[in-house]
Amino acid sequence: MMEKMIFGRYVPADSVIHKMDPRSKLIIIFLFVCIVFIANNAITYGALVVYTFLMLGLSKVPMRFVFGGLKLVFILILFTFLLHIFLTKEGPVIFELGWFKVYEEGLRQGIFISLRFFLLILMTSILTLTTTPIAITDGLETLLGPLKKVKFPVHELALMMSIALRFIPTLMQETDKIMKAQTARGVDFTSGPVKDRVKAVIPLLIPLFVSSFKRAEELATAMEARGYRGGEGRTRYRQLSWGLTDTMMILLLAALTVLLIVFRT
Amino acid sequence: MDISLKNVEYRYQVDTPFERLAIKDVSIDIPAGTFLAIIGHTGSGKSTVLQHLNALLKPTGGEVVLGDKVITADKKQKNLKEVRQRVGIVFQFPEHQLFEETVEKDICFGPMNFGVSEKEAKIRAREAIAHVGLSEEILEKSPFDLSGGQMRRVAIAGVLAMNPDVIVLDEPTAGLDPRGRKEIMDMFSDLHKQRKLSTILVTHSMEDASRYADKIVIMHSGQVYRTGTPLEIFSNPEELIKMGLDVPEVVKFQQKLERAFQRKFSKTCLTIEEITEEISSFLKRGDVQ
Ligand SMILES: Nc1ncnc2c1ncn2[C@@H]1O[C@H](COP(=O)(O)OP(=O)(O)OP(=O)(O)O)[C@@H](O)[C@H]1O
Ligand SMILES: [Mg+2]
């Protein structure tokens, strides 16, 4: 069950998106998160959808894999959608069944907000699927570099992030392993009454915590043993390089922004 | 409980870019009471095979017969609990599964999941802890205060306390000291003899494989490369060495001796006792100067 998770997973491939500079990808994601909120009608949302799927297509990550991995997210989105349908009571009634009424505004908001949510998740997934954690960190550190002047701990933040990203798959593997070990000892994680299933989480979480803490400690020791002393004066093995594609991609996003502003109502 | 694998295939992460064929066309028969050793390089699929033995993994092809249960790719299986009780697995580095406040509770955890009463479970815990060579005082301690080797033993005790008919061991002695290894292996061997437990052992130690097993399976890149008794397997050491696998020290010694004296012994010896006998009979006959 853990196998299908896509969070924090990097899928190597030879694509335009993979080759982009992590800085441009981060800038694009950041701007995208902002401009998503400009959209407010069918045309503008349509443009966002087209753009997102274009990016997904360019990334060459198999769609089936991406959507398979987002199953859990779909449930959340469906939940958001239903909340809007039930709770928004504005505009004309478009559907009625006994006491249950669906209002036009509810449907509209439900669709748009779920869509917004979906696009945001998809875009950030494209980022993590096509960029190694190290690259993301390097990019972030460079982009936030100016903040060092005001004593903002940029390097530490970037390091924390990359460690977190790096260990997501490890944690998944570990979870899978411990689940199997406890299943072999008679724990049933997948069926049975809810009460039992909640109880089944304890034999999973405790070993997971224990090994995470142990791993953190070992990692810290290993880093210190190899002379890590924070970001001060640290040189870099991988150099970032901004290419033509990066500029083009930024321009494409700018064009999308203009389009959104023009067509919003 | 008889176990048999028929043309089993398993793919990890089906339908993702990471899909990977781990084992294919694996057929192994394990009648009740067998001591089977599985050897092979790292990554050859040994652990994957083991996980089929109590339905933790469902084959993506072929079938796994566990007693009267048949497990295939498309059949939904219910009630695997019984199988899981009868087949106890000691995973690679089982100490990671400990979680209770005390060792005793942790050992009782398995049996109680399978419906054994607390009183009975505690009796079993006492038995099991003695089996793995720890003293009863340890029962009151927290499992996290133990040394690595002690944790390993507690984890093994936790599986023994389930009273399985089949015990599956994935490198149970990896990382233990030589004496600990021998103690643990002798204990499994005794259990196998006394209780007629089927035992399936994955190991990198050719010594253990030749000393304890009735039957050896060699895995190579996801397939069964060869099956046979220890004698059959090790009487052709060149082949194993060519594959990059080790052979028991005794066999190596015999090979060197034979080469040095340009003579063949009458049989392949697997134990020190056997080879001592061979050599002394050679010497007595005065064949060798
Ligand atoms: N969860 C997983 N996802 C993807 N591939 C896996 C997974 N687990 C194992 N594999 C792959 O399946 C193959 C067989 O792995 P397996 O763990 O069975 O090997 P093994 O013989 O037990 O090795 P070792 O001696 O190192 O324990 C390996 O090539 C491994 O990369
Ligand atoms: Mg293994």
TrEMBL record, chain A:
Entry keywords, A to Z: Cell membrane, Membrane, Transmembrane, Transmembrane helix, Transport
Pfam families associated with the record: CbiQ
CDD domains documented for this protein: EcfT
Keyword Membrane included in the entry's annotation: yes
Membrane topology: Multi-pass membrane protein
Location of this chain's protein in the cell: Cell membrane
Assembly mode: Forms a stable energy-coupling factor (ECF) transporter complex composed of 2 membrane-embedded substrate-binding proteins (S component), 2 ATP-binding proteins (A component) and 2 transmembrane proteins (T component).
PANTHER family: PROTEIN ABCI12, CHLOROPLASTIC
Family: Belongs to the energy-coupling factor EcfT family.
The protein, known as: Energy-coupling factor transporter transmembrane protein EcfT
Gene source species: Cytobacillus horneckiae
Gene coding for it: ecfT
UniProtKB/TrEMBL annotation, chain B:
GO CC field: ATP-binding cassette (ABC) transporter complex
EC class: translocase
Enzyme Commission designation: 7.-.-.-
Keyword Cell membrane: yes
PROSITE patterns, alphabetized: ABC_TRANSPORTER_1 (PS00211), ABC_TRANSPORTER_2 (PS50893)
UniProt-annotated location(s): Cell membrane
This protein's record includes keyword Cell membrane: yes
Signal peptide residue numbers: none
Gene Ontology molecular function: ATP binding; ATP hydrolysis activity; ATPase-coupled transmembrane transporter activity; cobalt ion transmembrane transporter activity
Keywords in alphabetical order: ATP-binding, Cell membrane, Membrane, Nucleotide-binding, Translocase, Transport
InterPro entries in the cross-refs: AAA+_ATPase, ABC_transporter-like_ATP-bd, ABC_transporter-like_CS, ABC_transpr_CbiO/EcfA_su, ECF_ABC_transporter_ATP-bd, EcfA2, P-loop_NTPase
SUPFAM superfamilies hit by this protein: P-loop containing nucleoside triphosphate hydrolases
Domain ABC transporter: 3-246
Membrane topology: Peripheral membrane protein
NCBIfam families: ECF_ATPase_2 (TIGR04521), PRK13634.1 (NF010155)
Family stated for the protein in its record: Belongs to the ABC transporter superfamily. Energy-coupling factor EcfA family.
Binding partners and assembly: Forms a stable energy-coupling factor (ECF) transporter complex composed of 2 membrane-embedded substrate-binding proteins (S component), 2 ATP-binding proteins (A component) and 2 transmembrane proteins (T component).
Protein purpose: ATP-binding (A) component of a common energy-coupling factor (ECF) ABC-transporter complex.
Descriptive protein name: Energy-coupling factor transporter ATP-binding protein EcfA2
Organism for this UniProt entry: Cytobacillus horneckiae
Species classification: Bacteria, Bacillati, Bacillota, Bacilli, Bacillales
